[in-house]
Structure to design on (438 residues):
DNA sequence: GCAAAAGTGTTAGGAGTACACCCATGC
DNA sequence: GCATGGGTGTACTCCTAACACTTTTGC
């Protein structure tokens, strides 16, 4: 590869995050309003161009921080988008990630150097977005549904443990379907990913529910 | 993003394929010997730098063709490798794919503009490779194992159909474990991905085996 | 007729699904 | 005491895994 060959010039990498949360039983995604061209004033996913001197996930976390004020969002690779004309400015390949945050623990910045607004949108109510970000969200949703049972991606929602009714609500919200209470308990307990604690806590009912927590990696 | 900012200059995208085949019951991977720096004379996966004016998979297929003479290899996304120092020349992010080819139907070029050799290596016998290609293979192997049951990625091995003993050999070879004949048949037939044909054919035994084929997408 | 591989069936355990009743608590 | 949600068990089906015998055919 000849570094000065025009065939390779002006390529860049977008690192993009579909950041989800759940607020009052509704799955939401974090969007920002762009302040600059291209797609000025258009809503978009959080993300931007990777620097030369940072690893992919570090770049993504920097972008998330710069555009929303959020720090240390845990992210997982979702997919790659590389159509040659997906950016009107120059050739950009997008690496897309999924992130989950606890809405009670974060405060997003509405106005930054490059964004004029930031807001949570219900997943059923996403507007037309910059670039191919609508496609990216679609793919991220699919991956999210696949990974909730097999990974501990939901851990961030429950830093202090959770009751099974709570967890079930989150599942129902992400999968967008009702689940049977008894079968849900069996399934979750069978994955061997969670353990019972001593505590109890009221959730929606009057009766107190048992609190569980995700196992640590070592357990 | 300011296009002339040094933070974004000299970035590129590697498109890389772990091309597998099965030869005499052994899983093999296609490697090429590099003719140029960096990693001159080192073995490496097939792939190279993406051009500005081509989609990701088109670029990958071009690289495969240039370096091995193979055309139209069907590929699937595997993962992404983006450590900042993974290339000594400039910042390169690698998009890695899995490809399968039928060794009876291809002839690879041993010598091209950029390669001085190309050869199939048993998966247990892969040498030290250029860049982070050893890591990329490891990941591709994991993805390959996950996808053989749920996708028709093995179709290319059997353009004219296959017998179940044949297919089982391929599974055993990729998963690196022995499978029970009766349970294998049940499992495969249950996936509803294959259909019985009228023909029969001898494989390893004297008795002729029934020939199946993968369903078309429309079936 | 025998060696070598192809083909088949049964049983037991585990997971998924559907479904109904009692328990604890706040009001 | 009753409404609300939390907690539990059972029966059926389906998938998985373990396991042994018969069939075909080339030699």
């Amino acid at each position: 590869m000849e570094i000065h060959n025009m065939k390779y010039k002006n390529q860049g990498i977008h690192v993009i995050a579909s950041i989800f949360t759940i607020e009052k039983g509704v799955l939401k995604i974090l969007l920002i309003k762009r302040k600059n061209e291209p797609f000025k004033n258009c809503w978009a996913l959080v993300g931007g161009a990777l620097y030369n001197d940072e690893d992919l996930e570090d770049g993504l976390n920097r972008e998330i921080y710069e555009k929303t004020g959020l720090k240390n969002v845990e992210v997982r690779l979702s997919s790659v988008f590389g159509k040659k004309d997906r950016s009107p400015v120059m050739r950009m390949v997008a690496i897309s990630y999924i992130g989950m945050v606890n809405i009670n623990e974060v405060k997003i910045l509405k106005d930054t150097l490059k964004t004029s607004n930031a807001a949570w949108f219900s997943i059923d109510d996403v507007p037309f977005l910059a670039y191919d970000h609508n496609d990216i969200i679609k793919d991220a949703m699919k991956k999210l549904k696949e990974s909730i049972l097999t990974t501990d991606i939901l851990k961030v929602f429950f830093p202090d443990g959770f009751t099974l009714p709570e967890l079930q609500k989150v599942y129902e919200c992400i999968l967008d379907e009702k689940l049977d209470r008894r079968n849900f308990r069996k399934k979750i307990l069978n994955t061997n990913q969670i353990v019972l604690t001593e505590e109890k806590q009221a959730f929606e009912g009057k009766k107190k529910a048992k609190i569980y927590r995700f196992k640590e990696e070592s357990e």
Observations:
- The interface with chain A takes residues 1, 3, 6-13, 48-57, 77, 79-80, 82-84, 89-91, 93, 95 of chain B (CB under 8 Å).
- The beta strands of chain B are 11-23, 26-34, 43-49, 75-81, 91-100, 115-122, 162-163, 194-202, 208-214.
- Residues 77 and 97 of chain B are 4 Å apart (CA to CA).
